[in-house]
Design a protein that fits this description.
The protein is α/β, with parallel strands linked by helices.
């Protein structure tokens, strides 16, 4: 049983969240929600006892206000970490000011992003004088950035809407952890990154995102390390993303792209500060060539494979030897001339760090324990000293300390990864130290109310959890439809069969649909087939396809059009909020089981099997349930939404484990009959016409 808040706090929360409370007086349309108050009480109790809380709150619960109110009143110094920069900005610009105004509390707030989001004076000046531009368009963008630098207070590139955040020009005018000159920078006193960190130090409430949080835990590069000692409360919103994000940062990665950037920067700095001292262009060209040769070892444009699967005779290993040789030549030259300028010293430090990563990956697979202990230099002290045992209940989700070496191939780059099989012992250790409250919240953390899988991944205690239902009336507002007579998901032509079943539903829904696929191949096939079908049938539904534009642009167009069909894969399964009639149908092609050929997953499943556990029951099934709940959550976003969730995978109703899956979803009314679906939309249309 979870601890209860102090009576005084409980009474105050009831007043704040009540029908005539502070929130109702400030926020138009606010209505009391029992689950919201229940979550606020649980958060309040965790704050008072410096405890951990895992809070699953269904869509529409109002979980943001449920943790913001107690945090602002009793949380002390609070860090809120979100899954995306979009939610980070929403919290900072909208939700936090709203609650602060309602409570009338003098809480100071700051937002902190990764250094790549902030303009760098030093590199901006270098780009002005020595920039390498791919087009006149980039030169025009640089001029805009120069003007922006004179006017901005924060230096946050998101404020300059005329230059897209993913524009290549930004890489020339921002710094990275590797390239930053630190206190030796001539513009250090004007640094936007340092200014943002100073504001965060002084603020009562700081908003960050998961990538930033874990980058600092491992690399101490974002300013959070300085915040943590004084933090009383840590809130992870969209906490379902934490296991994947933490795995990314508790492992280590070396990319050929990093080596190409090092070669480019070394040549640039060498020619400025020590032009006649070395053959800088030749050294840079040799490293670039060696890095590109690594990519040429693979004919595929997309590949994820373990080092063991490659075999000792693979061309990659010889290419890595040559890459190491070129990198050592560069290091030797930099060592001879690093004292001439801090910029050359920074290049030397980067080169040494990259060589350490390369040597560790290539020459020796670290023994058990060493792989984790060496990552990020000092992970055990990043959040504080000490340890906290996690009792997740999932008996050893993977071998503690074990890791897997694997390779990821992209169209123009190769990444070498060393990934721990379990992050639970690392994360549990990070959470030790000074007493503070840890809040983990999301709409999707449990399997049928059971938090064992999620808690085990992070080394948490599954008993310290609460599951709060959505206030929406799913039985009246929605319908779960699993078509009959579809082939197995592994069958040839499965995607075409899905589309054949979906067409009559798309017709009666009038478009207004998401088609969520589990693979990019299915996205491509669905787009080809639906374009042909729409043309043949004379349907005027606009077709929006992932990859044709940015996610934000596609969603804006989807909302504006009102009758579009959007086809997407993983990035559209979560963090997407489309309310109203524009989205009335969500089609999911099949249950989102992770591909078993993923090298990290394969190693984790093997570790579970060696322990005598069922990899499917312990890991694959619960993870698929959490992902499916995210996709299903796109459909009903408000009390007035109506729609159909169509899952085209008969395993949901025909396999013994299917019951566990659909019972984990919101309580949709269920059917397998197409006429029932058609009737549902007819009633929705009739109700809308009244």
């Amino acid at each position: 049983m979870l601890p209860q808040p102090a009576p005084q706090h409980a009474s105050e929360l009831e007043t704040i969240f009540g029908a005539d409370g502070l929130l109702a007086r400030t926020i138009d349309g606010y209505r009391p929600r029992p689950a919201q108050l229940q979550m606020a009480r649980a958060v309040s109790a965790a704050l008072a006892t410096h405890d951990t809380l895992i809070a699953e709150a269904g869509t529409g619960t109002g979980k943001t206000y449920a943790y913001l109110v107690p945090a602002m009143l009793w949380g002390g110094k609070t860090i809120i970490s979100t899954g995306t920069k979009h939610l980070q900005d929403q919290l900072f610009a909208r939700d936090i000011p709203t609650v602060r105004e309602a409570l009338a509390v003098p809480v100071s707030v700051a937002v902190l992003k990764g250094r790549a989001n902030y303009l760098c004076h030093y590199y901006l000046e270098r780009a002005e004088h020595e920039g390498r531009f791919g087009s006149r368009h980039e030169i025009a963008q640089l001029r805009e950035i120069v003007q922006f630098a004179k006017l901005t207070r924060s230096g946050d590139k998101a404020e300059l809407a005329s230059v897209p955040e993913n524009a290549p020009i930004w890489s020339q005018v921002t710094s990275t952890r590797d390239s930053c000159l630190g206190a030796d920078c001539p513009r250090y006193k004007d640094c936007f990154v340092m200014q943002a960190r100073k504001e965060a130090q002084q603020a009562d409430l700081v908003v960050v995102n998961h990538h930033l949080f874990f980058a600092d835990v491992m690399l101490r590069d974002t300013g959070i390390a300085e915040l943590l000692p004084s933090a009383n409360t840590i809130v992870f919103d969209e906490a379902h993303q934490l296991p994947e994000t933490a795995t990314l940062f508790f492992g280590q990665t070396l990319s050929t792209g990093q080596l190409l950037e090092l070669a480019r920067d070394t040549v640039a700095e060498g020619l400025v500060h020590a032009r006649d001292a070395a053959q800088w262009s030749a050294l840079g060209a040799a490293l670039e060539r060696a890095a590109r040769d690594v990519r040429l070892c693979f004919s595929q444009d997309a590949l994820r494979v373990s080092a063991a699967q490659l075999g000792e005779a693979h061309a990659l290993f010889e290419a890595l030897d040559k890459l190491e040789s070129a990198l050592l030549d560069l290091i030797a030259t930099l060592e001879a001339h690093a004292e001439r300028a801090e910029a050359l010293g920074a290049c030397l430090r980067r080169a040494i760090d990259l060589h350490r990563l390369l040597a560790q990956w290539q020459h020796a697979e670290p023994p058990a324990g060493e792989a984790v202990a060496s990552i990020g230099k000092a992970p055990a002290n990043a959040l504080g000293k000490g340890d906290e045992s996690g009792r997740g209940g999932e008996s050893g989700s993977a071998d503690e300390g074990a890791s897997v070496r694997w390779v990821e191939v992209f169209s123009h780059a190769v990444q070498l990864h060393l990934t721990p099989l379990s992050i639970a012992p690392i994360f549990a250790k990070q959470r030790g130290g000074a007493p503070r409250a840890w809040i983990f919240t999301s709409a999707t953390l449990s399997v049928k109310g059971n938090f064992t899988h999620y808690a085990a991944q992070l080394g948490l205690d599954a008993a310290k959890s609460i599951s709060l239902p959505s206030p929406f009336d799913y039985e009246a507002q929605s319908l779960l439809y699993v078509p009959r007579n579809l082939p197995a998901p592994s069958a040839l032509g499965f995607t075409d069969a899905v589309l054949e079943a979906a067409l009559p539903v798309l017709e009666v829904s009038g478009g207004r649909a998401f088609l969520l696929c589990t693979t990019l191949r299915a996205v491509k096939r669905a787009a080809e087939r639906l374009r042909d079908e729409f043309d043949r049938r004379g349907w005027s539904y606009p077709l929006l396809v992932q990859g044709d534009a940015s996610r934000t642009e596609l969603l804006d167009r989807f909302r504006a059009l009102g009758n579009a069909v959007l086809i997407g894969s993983q990035s559209f399964w979560e963090g997407v909020d489309v309310r109203g009639e524009a989205l009335s149908l969500v089609i999911i092609d099949k249950l989102p089981f992770a591909p078993p050929d993923d090298p990290v997953l394969a190693a984790r499943l093997d570790a579970l099997a060696r322990k005598g556990l069922s990899p499917f029951a312990v890991h694959q099934l619960p993870q698929a349930v959490i992902t499916l709940k995210q996709g299903a959550g796109r459909l009903i976003r408000s009390e007035s939404d109506r729609g159909v969730l169509m899952i085209c995978d008969a395993r949901l109703v025909e396999k013994p484990y299917g019951r566990r899956i659909w019972q984990s979803l919101p309580p949709f009314k269920r059917t397998r009959e197409l006429p029932t679906v058609l009737s549902f939309f007819e009633h929705v249309e009739a109700a809308g016409a009244q």
